């Protein structure tokens, strides 16, 4: 069930309403981006999605926590992988820790630039080292032909 701002009153758990209110404070908040998975008097659980992961944020009267899971398995595996993210008492501080964890879970490592050796730079500059597509396919087909013989 996707949350609509007019449906917030339908959320049964008081802390569930508080969680949606905290989320709605942020720029780019859209109720269409929140999927309510559990909505009962004792538990409220939502899923939010990115291209690679799904984040499950759970709330009770006293607890707030989050898990992350990949949306697709790795090659050769049938299961998805996941991690526990911050959890604790139902406090805004816990909520901020969860959002920070989601942010850094999604960020990519910055790769250090490679310092090339002078002779490597010379190889890169020499155009005769670069093979045309036609030459590549000619060599590949002659390799395949010799392999068949």
Task: For the structure shown, list the relevant keywords.
alpha+beta; 4 helices; 5 strands
Please describe what this structure looks like.
This protein has a 5-stranded antiparallel beta sheet. The protein contains 4 helices and 5 strands. By secondary structure, the protein is α+β, with helices and mostly antiparallel strands. It folds into 2 domains: 102 residues; 31 residues.
The structure class reads alpha+beta
Number of strands: 5
What is the share of helical residues? 25-40%
Profile the largest sheet.
Answer: 5 strands, antiparallel
The best one-word shape is: elongated
Q: How much is the average pLDDT?
A: 85
SSE order, as H and E? HEEEEEHHH
What proportion of the residues form beta strands (DSSP E)? 15-25%
What's the gyration radius in Å? 26 Å
pLDDT < 50 stretches: none
User: Cα distance, first to last residue?
Assistant: 63 Å
Spatial strand arrangement across the major sheet: 1-2-3-4-5
Tally the helices: 4
| Number of self-contained structural domains | 2
